[in-house]
Design brief:
The structure is a single chain. Helix 2 (about 70-85) packs across helix 3 and helix 4 crosses helix 6. Helix 1 (about 40-45) links the parallel strand 3 and strand 4. With about 260 residues, the chain is α/β, with parallel strands linked by helices. The chain contains ten helices and eight strands. An eight-stranded mixed sheet has the order 1-2-4-3-5-6-7-8, sandwiched between helices.
């Protein structure tokens, strides 16, 4: 399994696909590289797909510190590209990954040709703080099962919760494998996120997508990103909630394909 050694910790990554254009995917909060399973086969047909687990996720190493800063995660991704000898990528970030992507585009603009931000935040507001607190309290009170149950209405649309019941037991089992202490350090990094003052400095062509039933990263946040990033475009996915990689993988891929070239 491929790992990148950086500053006394290991980061897990995967490279796959048949295409020549590199597409880098940034995970959501509790995701790992494996979470892109529904989308990867479609994307691999067109792109050279680069995925990594950020510090605190999946198979990457966790270190004991109060917070994993978004800027540090962005720099780790840049170090991975240097390690792979990739000069520039098409970058797609989902949720937490979309926040890291904003910092990546600010700190390493020469490494990004185009950027797609999916279901993400321009800033971590008071509501986001309370949601994160409720998840941590649920973990303390009832472990991963209660945390999963409490998170459901924030992550999924009403349509998915009705039609996708068969997936929920497997998703709950996956949620139980997450190292919550590490996720809380990731969340602590999110709490400091506020890109509103510098979105106008981003020069990367950007497309934003959001589900119209996304309660976790709602439409107003997507509009802040669209209004703040020069020339950014916005698409709203009808009937979709927050977890677009699970609810709307084909639509997600289609937007990636459509925005891949000018």
């Amino acid at each position: 399994m491929p790992f990148l050694q950086t500053e006394q910790r290991q980061l897990y990554y995967e490279v796959s696909g048949q295409g020549s254009q590199p597409l880098m995917l940034f995970n959501g909060l509790t995701m790992s590289t494996a979470a892109w399973t529904l989308m990867a086969p479609m994307l691999e047909q067109r792109f050279r797909l680069i995925r990594l687990d950020f510090q605190g996720q999946g198979q990457s190493e966790s270190t004991e510190q109060p917070a994993y800063a978004l800027t540090r995660q962005a720099d780790d991704a840049a170090a991975l590209l240097d390690h792979l000898g990739v000069e520039q990528v098409y970058l797609a970030g989902l949720s937490y990954g979309g926040m890291v992507a904003q910092h990546f585009a600010r700190r390493h603009p020469q490494k990004v040709g185009r950027m797609l931000l999916a279901a993400t935040l321009a800033w971590s507001d008071a509501i986001n703080t309370q949601i994160a607190l409720s998840w941590s309290q649920a973990e303390t009170a009832g472990g991963s099962d209660l945390r999963f149950d409490v998170s459901l209405p924030w992550l999924f649309s009403s349509r998915f919760l009705q039609a996708g019941q068969a997936m929920l037991p497997d998703l709950k089992r996956i949620a139980a494998t997450v190292e919550w202490v590490a996720i809380e350090r990731i969340i602590a990094g999110v709490m400091a996120h506020d890109a509103r003052s510098w979105l106008g400095d981003l020069t990367v062509p950007t497309h934003i997508i959001v589900g119209d039933e996304d309660r976790l990263t709602p439409l107003y946040q997507a509009r802040l990103l669209q209004q703040g990033i020069p020339g950014a475009s916005l698409s709203i996915l009808p009937g979709a909630g927050h977890a677009l990689h699970l609810e709307a993988p084909q639509q997600f891929c289609q937007h990636i394909f459509q925005f891949a070239t000018p």
